[in-house]
Amino acid sequence: MKGKKITILGAGISGLASAHWLEKAGYDVTILEQNSEPGGAMKTKFIDGFLVDFGPNSGLETT
């Protein structure tokens, strides 16, 4: 598949995984991300000496 190019919008887990497999398949992959770092909804931050995980379910309320 020489010469095949693809652009992926978003560097979340799905975009990064898709880019990985498309590159292995021979595509020239470009990822565009609007934020300053990859990860999408899944992030880990170091806050006040603690590792804090943020994910797609982190802010959900239960009733």
**Structure classification:** alpha+beta
SS element count, helices: 1
List low-confidence stretches: none
Within the largest sheet, what's the order of strands? 1-2
Number of domains: 1
Order of helices and strands: EHEEE
Q: What is the rounded distance between the termini?
A: 51 Å
Tell the overall outline: elongated
Please tell me the overall pLDDT.
88
Number of DSSP strand runs: 4
What kind of sheet is the major sheet? 2 strands, parallel
Strand content: 25-35%
Protein described:
With 63 residues, this protein is of the alpha+beta class. It has one domain. Helix content is 19%, strand content 32%. The chain has one helix and four strands; from the N terminus they run βαβββ. The chain has one helix at residues 13-24, and strands at 5-9, 28-32, 43-47, 50-54. A hairpin with a 2-residue loop joins strand 3 and strand 4. It is elongated and about 50 Å long.
Provide the descriptors you would attach to this structure in a database record:
single chain; 63 residues; alpha+beta; two-stranded parallel ribbon; two-stranded antiparallel sheet; 4 strands
What's the quick description here?
19% of the residues lie in helices and 32% in strands.
What is the topology?
Layout: E1 5-9, H1 13-24, E2 28-32, E3 43-47, E4 50-54
Parallel strand pairs: 1-2
Antiparallel strand pairs: 3-4
